[in-house]
Design a protein that fits this description.
With 105 residues, this protein is of the alpha+beta class. The chain has a single domain, classed as Arc Repressor Mutant, subunit A (Orthogonal Bundle), CATH 1.10.10. Helix 2 crosses helix 3 and helix 3 crosses helix 4. It is globular, with a radius of gyration of 13 Å.
Length: 105
């Protein structure tokens, strides 16, 4: 994975991710729902709230518990490895960096 992080004086951050990684991150419907949900939030969100919102956002019929498991084991670690979120597993909190929304723009 190739990425470059740029910090601006106004506090915003831009993370440039190569096209292959960008496509991999956007390939899954639940990961796209995570981006949409976190893009509307400021500050950290609980895993429980995120799972509820992602289940509703993705297809409306997703089981919240299964979504939470996928978030914990797959989706959030991928975003964290890319430098797009901070995931505190012990506290059950997810904090998106402002750069997360740049994946879809």
């Amino acid at each position: 994975m190739s990425e470059t992080t740029t910090h601006f004086e106004d506090g915003t951050v831009r993370i440039d991710i190569d096209e292959d990684e960008r496509h991999r991150l956007l390939a899954d419907e639940e990961r796209r729902a995570v981006i949409d949900v976190l893009d509307d939030r400021t500050g950290a969100v609980s895993m429980s709230d995120l799972a509820d919102d992602v289940a509703r956002e993705s297809d409306g019929d997703s089981d919240r518990r299964n979504v939470e498991i996928q978030l914990h084991h797959t989706h959030l670690p991928m975003f964290e490895d890319a430098g797009l979120v901070a995931y505190d597993r012990d506290a059950g909190l997810v904090d998106a960096h402002h750069a997360l929304s740049t994946l879809t723009h």
